[in-house]
Write a structure and sequence with these properties.
It is a multi-pass membrane protein. Pfam families: EamA. It is found in: Membrane. Helices cover 69% and strands 4% of the residues. The longest helix is centred in the last third of the chain and has 26 residues, at 205-230. The protein has one domain (2-309). The radius of gyration is 20 Å and the shape is globular. It has helices at 2-19, 25-47, 55-79, 85-92, 95-106, 114-131, 140-163, 169-190, 205-230, 232-235, 242-254, 260-277, 281-284; strands at 292-298, 304-309. 49% of the residues are buried. Strands 1-2 form a two-stranded antiparallel ribbon. The chain is mainly alpha-helical and 310 residues long. The model is unreliable at 284-310 (pLDDT under 50).
């Protein structure tokens, strides 16, 4: 599920860049999530509970709809009008760091350990290498827009976990997409963007369909399922893999081959990903030294917790 999500969302950066050549940004994002939200809402209504039942669940819809759908994607699309999709994906790679900071402030059980921090540093180093800040001129306005969007995404992920909503993932996604699309369309009207009559025809058609059904419907169903299983810090580490899949997609579709510098950055990102996600990676490599088991406890969920002494 994790690798599939990386491919779905990495490919979305290529599709966004392709579609923005002929469609205004906020209309593009708003129409995408209006259609995706309608599909997901239909699935949710047909397969289980759809309507939020209390204040906490409505708050969850508001957090995801405004911060994750409207805030993040609106700023991402606006930023990608002046920088490439590949550069946008690199900036989005910072979301694990921002999510870790937000989770540390709001969720006591999500505080990162030393190895997690080392993994995040490796990932940041890879992001810097991939971005190659000294190699080309990247408009700071585009970088700033995408960065603020990523901060909203991270805040929304942690806020949703803190609310502990019991609303099914499909229902939450459907409501949030519909709410977010209304905010995005409202922004498009305020910016006086022209309505894209031909969004489903011509060169924008294929990217639009992919963004609605692939990255939108399938991608977010996968994301919320992972969020419920592993928490916001670990699930947002998917952003470390998105520059890899985005670069490979740009190579396959746009003919933009990755450079040696990019490949080196990918290796650093991979190292950071392993350190931040694999449990006790140093011990598994035989680096942790000898240890003696001093006690074992049975945790509340039935798993055995082993405690060691060096």
């Amino acid at each position: 599920m994790f690798v599939s999500l990386a491919w779905l969302w990495g490919g979305a950066f290529v599709a966004i860049e392709m579609g923005l050549g002929s469609v205004p940004p906020l209309w593009f994002a708003g129409l995408r999530y209006l259609l995706a939200g309608a599909v997901i809402s239909g699935v949710a209504a047909a397969t289980g509970r759809f309507k939020p039942k209390d204040r906490n669940e409505w708050l969850s819809v508001g957090v995801v709809g405004i911060l994750v759908v409207a805030g993040y994607h609106g700023l991402l699309y606006l930023g990608t009008t002046v920088i490439s999709g590949s550069v946008s994906s690199v900036i989005v790679s910072l979301s694990p760091v921002l999510t870790t900071v937000a989770a540390g402030l709001l969720l006591a059980d999500e505080s990162p350990g030393i190895v997690d921090g080392l993994g995040l540093l490796f990932g940041l180093a890879g992001v810097v290498v991939i971005a190659d800040p000294g190699g080309s001129s990247v408009p700071l306005s585009g970088v700033a827009l995408v960065f603020v969007g990523v901060a909203l995404f991270a805040s929304g992920s942690v806020g949703l976990r803190a609310l502990e909503s019991e609303l099914p993932a499909a229902a939450l996604q459907g409501w949030a997409m519909l709410l977010g699309s209304l905010v995005l369309v409202g922004g498009a009207v305020l910016r006086r963007e022209s309505f894209p009559v031909h969004v489903a025809r011509g060169e924008s058609a294929l990217p639009f369909v992919y963004l609605v059904l692939g990255a939108g419907v399938l991608g977010y169903l996968t994301y919320f399922e992972l969020l419920s299983r592993v928490g916001p810090v670990r699930v947002n580490l998917v952003a470390y893999l998105e520059p890899v899949t985005a670069a490979m997609g740009a190579w396959a579709v746009l003919g933009r081959a990755p450079t040696t510098t990019t490949a080196a950055g990918f290796l650093l990102v991979a190292c950071g990903f392993v350190l931040a996600t694999v449990e006790n990676p140093l011990e598994k490599l035989g680096i942790g030294g000898s240890e003696e088991v001093v006690r074992s406890d049975l945790s509340e969920n039935g798993s055995v917790e082993i405690h060691y002494a060096d």
